[in-house]
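Possible regression after last week's pipeline update?

I re-ran a chain I had predicted before the update to compare outputs. Posting the input and the new output here so someone can diff against the archived version. Not blocking, just want to make sure nothing changed silently.
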Amino acid sequence: MGFLIYFALLIIIPLWAQMKVKSAYKKYSKVSASSGMTGAQVARKILDDNGLYDVRVEEVRGTLTDHYDPRDQTVRLSSQNFHGTSVAGAAVAAHEVGHAIQDAHDYAFLRFRHALVPVANFGSNFSFILIIAGILMQASGLLLLGIVFMAAAVLFQLVTLPVEFDASNRAMSQIVSAGVIRNDEERETRKVLNAAALTYVAGALVALLELARFILMYIGMNDD
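New output (post-update):
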């Protein structure tokens, strides 16, 4: 029964977070921002206000595919946010610009996350192979190695949390000071940003639960 509850939580937590962000985005993508600015204009204004004239703003296909690419210093916004004038679009655009500002200011957690990318990718790809092999072969050494690699991937997700929350805080500060939204629109904007942050919190929580489960397996294997 305990395992059923555990696996149910692993499925329900991320699904709930995804539903929250999609619901908030869908709702506030229908609410026009008082400034009438498109997401692209919002991003460009905040970048220019912060002296980041070399950072480009480009359109990218898909829904909620918005991101900042530090490799070529480009803010990419999904079509709906790039062209739309909604509160949700302004919030998402400002959030991605928040990452560009972090990059320009050498934000420590962002730099740490970038440094973890190769290790986290390797851990994500190979940890489960080692863990399953260790369990099937009753080889605690293999299981421990898999746990170490998984821990690196989990660390990446944990470091992502302050990066995302800081970008959202910067976004709120920037769109208010830039006059993109009115004071009475702050609540709606924050709901979009908070819902998006939930997905990262949920991902980190699930990853921690999985890591804890395999650590307990390792301890149990060595107690036998």
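Follow-up from reviewer: compared with the archived run. The chain has a mean pLDDT of 90. Marking as no regression found.
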